[in-house]
Design brief:
Blueprint: H1 2-18, H2 22-48, E1 55-59, H3 65-74, E2 88-92, H4 118-127, E3 135-139, H5 142-145, H6 148-155, E4 160-165, H7 170-180, E5 189-192, H8 205-216, E6 221-227, E7 232-237
Parallel strand pairs: 1-2, 1-4, 2-3, 4-5
Antiparallel strand pairs: 5-7, 6-7
Helix pairs in contact: 2-3, 7-8
């Protein structure tokens, strides 16, 4: 049994680290399909509930696949934000995951994992046709960057209609939720991309951070909207 377990772990490591195996290729295709379906459902929500104007916040951007999907679907002016130009904000360390104890629970995590250099991230977006003026990148680990000065700066640009949280860890999700609460309006959508990590446990990862935030902020009501094998989406009422 021990030998079998070791063999399975090695296969998983090979799949993740080589990045070119059939298994990972199939997963990435599946994941992209799920992402496209997710954003089409989110777009329908904004069509049905217009006008609901606001900006897009994404926490944890890696190689920009989700961020590009948001730019593609919501553009500058759309049903998502019919009155004003939508502003797109990408929050990331651009240095990969932080070095915290939580990383040790999953073999795919660790210090520096999911790193995309900020200039490489810009190149990826520009190659897809999105220019620097279409978005703003906010670099740094959240405990340092998500401060009052940034909150004051961004609040001048309006609230958030869609918040995408893809930062994997409890350690990273806590400061994100504390930061975004001042940008929430009635009808804001929040997406948790790693909802089912840690075997779906409510006492670990994003779920732990969410349930603590929910308990400490009774002014917000969270209505389950979309759930699939990767994400959980809530409509926020206040």
């Amino acid at each position: 049994m021990k030998a079998l377990r070791t063999s399975l772990i090695n296969i998983l490591r090979k799949t993740y680290y080589l990045g070119k195996t059939i298994q990972l290729s199939k997963y990435e295709k599946f994941s992209q399909n799920e992402r496209e379906i997710l954003f089409s459902k989110i777009l329908k929500y904004f069509v049905l509930n217009r006008p609901l104007n606001g900006n897009y916040f994404e926490f944890g951007c890696h190689s920009g696949r989700t961020f590009r999907e948001a730019l593609k679907n919501f553009g500058s002016k759309s049903w998502f934000n019919s009155e004003n130009d939508t502003k797109f904000y990408a929050f990331d360390s651009f240095e990969g995951l932080p070095d915290v104890e939580e990383n040790k629970e999953k073999i795919i995590w660790g210090k520096g994992k999911f790193k995309t250099d900020i200039e490489e991230f810009r190149k990826i977006l520009n190659k897809s046709g999105y220019k620097n003026e279409n978005y703003e990148l906010i670099k740094g680990f959240y405990h340092n960057t998500l401060n009052d000065n940034l909150k004051i700066k961004l609040s001048k640009e309006g609230h958030a209609s869609l918040i995408y949280v893809d930062c994997d860890l409890y350690y990273s999700t806590v400061p994100v939720l504390n930061f975004i609460k001042d940008f929430i309006v009635d009808g804001t959508l929040i997406v948790f991309d790693d909802w089912f990590c840690f075997n779906g446990r409510a006492d670990k990862g994003q779920q732990k951070a969410f349930y603590e935030f929910q308990e400490n902020n009774p002014q917000f009501k969270f209505v389950p909207y979309i759930s699939n094998s990767e994400v959980q989406v809530f409509i926020i009422n206040k």
